[in-house]
Specification:
Length: 225
């Protein structure tokens, strides 16, 4: 079953897509390299957790995680870029390590983005945390399970990852744009709810992916042999 070309086009806008640094399913490379796959799959898992545990129950948490989770997340934020630059200092790495450090980095990002997005300085906020320690452990187990299925090259898991990682990328870009737009148009929030900002953020994300795709295509055609 071939992976749709649109996923590769979106991935091409943000990822080098080098075949030897990418997981494969039936000799078909995934749309993102091993590190990017980990980052955006991790984001997708956290977004899915938020959707099921908070959004469907009408809760919009605005309080960041507890201090222990912040400390753990800070560690994950450090080890991923360290792994990325380690080959320049003679420390070898490989796709499994890139995947693990990427997914630990990725699933932590939404824990800090979502409370900012949910915050409404001019309205009533939900005074609840985005995640508690027990929920964090559950999410970490889900991340570990997903990582394991990729490492053992489970076919069904790899196909799922191809779509889920791209969904994580699109959701992240849309929410990040929406959060920025909310801050820019803070004085006009009474005319727009969060759904409007997400819709505008998604449109902006589509424009950004298109620009990145066309820019990379032009550069490679003009300057690379």
């Amino acid at each position: 079953m071939p992976i749709p070309q649109i996923l590769y086009n979106i991935g091409y806008a943000v990822c080098h897509q080098l075949p030897w640094r990418t997981f494969h399913v039936h000799d078909q490379a995934l749309p993102l390299c091993s590190r990017c796959t980990g980052i955006y799959l991790g984001m997708f898992l956290t977004f899915a957790f938020y959707f099921a545990w908070h959004w469907l129950r009408g809760r919009r948490p605005t309080i960041p995680p507890t201090l222990p989770i912040i400390v753990i997340s800070a560690l994950f934020f450090i080890i991923m870029p360290f792994n990325a630059i380690s080959p320049h200092f003679g420390v070898p790495t490989h796709n499994i390590v890139r995947l693990i450090t990427g997914i630990l980095f990725g699933f932590s990002i939404p824990l800090f983005l979502l409370p900012v997005f949910n915050d409404n300085p001019r309205g009533k906020n939900s005074r609840s945390r985005i995640i508690k320690m027990g929920e964090y452990v559950f999410l970490l187990v889900a991340v570990t399970l997903a990582t394991t299925l990729i490492i053992i090259e489970n076919i069904f898991a790899l196909y799922f990852v191809a779509y889920a990682s791209m969904a994580g990328l699109v959701i992240f870009a849309s929410l990040l744009n929406a959060t920025i737009l909310k801050e820019i148009f803070e004085h006009y929030r009474k005319f727009f709810n969060n759904y409007w900002f997400v819709a505008m953020g998604a449109v902006l994300a589509a424009a950004e992916f298109t620009i990145f795709f066309l820019s990379r295509t032009y550069i490679e055609q003009q300057f690379l042999p």
